[in-house]
Design goal:
Alkaline Phosphatase, subunit A, 14 helices, about 500 residues, about 30% helix, alpha/beta, 4-stranded antiparallel β-sheet
């Protein structure tokens, strides 16, 4: 059988708990619901780094962010690091990227044959992390709440609709074998920036929900939180200004509207896939880079190991091959690279050991006797030292060089209210998980590498401030220009040779 095409749809900052497929009773997401009904849904999937750029670099490389120097949103993604795009190209695939990937550095392809859109964020060192900053210059602020609500338009809508437009055009081109060899399999990564804050949406999507529909955080503001929560609140300017109940509800209302909006975008991609007839031999993977706390525990956005920030949706659909169902095993984004390679069936192996495991056995309904372990990292602003996470079985363990450890039994305590780290009855388990942390990371060396990287990049950022910064973002050619009638081509040849029937 021919290798399947692989369509990977990634959205931005989508908490698993905001989808009906994961138990939410408020969200209106018919397209993602339909995809979930046809998919293997992973109930315990995690990001390996709850921040945009490090999460994506880690996912693409199949490596933990610390192993490739992806310490924060201003860290370069080195060209020498192989990605799943490189390996799929080596397997004979044509590879395309449409939308956000937040690449930092001069290489804006990282193995993809082409990018269909420009990236939405800077590719320079503008967002270099700094452990000494109490409130980072580019961090979120009170406008997340004062300006939450319905809008006619914002820049993220402009961007995502361009991503959708170019993605659909690419699918039509692929169906016509335009730009690929006859019978060549393809991989297309489509990356939307919604439902990332700002917590705004169109009036159409806002009006899908009544204010009374909007649920409030299950765990509200905590007066005596853990030290990292305190630092995160300082990063976001929340330590002195707690959003009011109306502001919280309005921000969550805007987020729900954005979730419905991105559902429409996903639906547009899937509808085009069906219209082209490519759906029968295309594996569709849907996920995100990280979640959003949305007011849980008085926290917003990401950068936390709490479930709202670190647990993500992940679903895989391949008609007539994988039976729809649900998987409770712990998995993470670094598992995608080996999964894509096994699905490609080319026999190409990573040239170095990767951090993830293929999910194909779970997709086929089998699994090994040994439980999978998920590792997570937080090395960005507010961390001040490495924050590291291990998820094994139902237990989540968070280690820090500066803060008290945390240990939660996610089966018995899904809201993470009871820290068992100092419970004598869990001392043996804590020691085991602590040993896993120190066998996976040299924590002293890691801290030194992060600080050295921050110092280098801060120096370079200072040299290239403002309009002096290099413009590394990739500007793709205009797709429309490739479809107009050019000189020297007969009209009828142009008009009739590229029809997709």
């Amino acid at each position: 059988m021919a290798s399947p095409n692989i369509l990977f749809i990634q959205v931005d900052q989508l908490a698993a708990s905001f989808l009906p497929a994961y138990g939410n009773r408020v969200s209106i997401t018919p397209n993602i619901d339909e995809l979930a009904a046809q998919s293997v849904v992973f109930e315990s999937a995690y990001t390996n780094f709850a921040l945009c750029a490090p999460s994506r670099f880690s996912m693409l490389a199949g490596q933990l962010a610390s192993d490739i120097g992806a310490y924060d949103n201003g860290a370069e993604f080195a060209s020498s690091v192989p990605t799943y795009a490189h390996y799929l190209r080596s397997s004979g695939y044509h590879t395309s990227l449409s939308g956000k990937m937040h690449f930092v550095g001069a290489d804006q392809l990282h193995g993809f044959d082409e990018r269909l859109t420009i990236d939405i964020y800077p590719a320079s060192f503008q967002w270099t992390g700094d452990w000494t900053e109490v409130s980072e210059e580019h961090s979120n602020d009170e406008r997340s709440f004062t300006l939450a609500g319905p809008v006619r338009r914002n820049v993220q809508m402009d961007y995502d609709e361009e991503v959708l437009h170019r993605t659909c055009r690419k699918l039509y081109d692929l169906a016509r074998n335009d730009g690929i060899a006859d019978g060549q399999p393809w991989h297309l990564t489509v990356s939307f920036t919604h439902p990332h804050d700002p917590y705004q949406c169109s009036h159409e999507h806002w009006n899908l929900y009544d204010d009374s529909d909007i649920d409030m955080p299950a765990v509200g503001w905590i007066d005596d939180p853990d030290p990292y929560t305190v630092r995160l609140r300082q990063q976001y300017g929340l330590e002195a200004t707690e959003p009011s109940e109306d502001q919280i509800r309005r921000a969550r209302h805007g987020y729900y509207g954005s979730v419905s909006y991105v559902d429409d975008l996903v639906g547009g991609v899937l509808q085009t896939l069906r219209q082209t007839g490519l759906d029968s031999n295309t594996v569709v993977v849907f996920s995100t880079d990280h979640g959003d706390m949305l007011g849980e525990r008085g926290l917003w956005y990401k950068r936390s190991f709490y479930e709202g920030s670190s647990r993500i949706p992940l679903m895989v659909c391949w008609p007539d091959h994988f039976l729809p169902g649900r998987v409770s095993e712990n998995v993470s984004l670094v598992d995608l690279l080996p999964t894509f390679l096994e699905l490609a069936g080319s026999g190409v192996e990573p040239i170095e050991e990767v951090a993830g495991e293929s999910l194909v056995d779970l997709l086929e309904g089998t699994k090994s006797a040994q439980s999978r372990i998920v590792y997570g990292e937080n090395l960005s602003e507010g961390a001040v030292a490495p924050l590291l996470m291990v998820r094994r079985g139902s237990m989540k363990y968070v280690w820090s060089g500066v803060d008290p450890a945390q240990l939660f039994d996610m089966g018995a305590d899904p809201l993470e209210l009871e820290n068992l780290a100092d419970d004598p009855g869990h001392a043996v388990l804590r020691a085991e998980l602590d040993a896993l942390v120190h066998s996976r990371w040299d924590v002293v060396d890691l801290a030194e590498r992060v600080l050295a990287s921050q110092t280098r990049r801060a120096f370079l950022r200072g040299l290239y401030a403002g309009d002096k910064a290099p413009e590394w973002r990739h500007s793709p050619p205009d797709q429309a220009a490739q479809r107009v009638l050019h000189e020297g081509v007969a009209y009828n040849d142009w008009a009739y040779d590229n029809i997709l029937r």
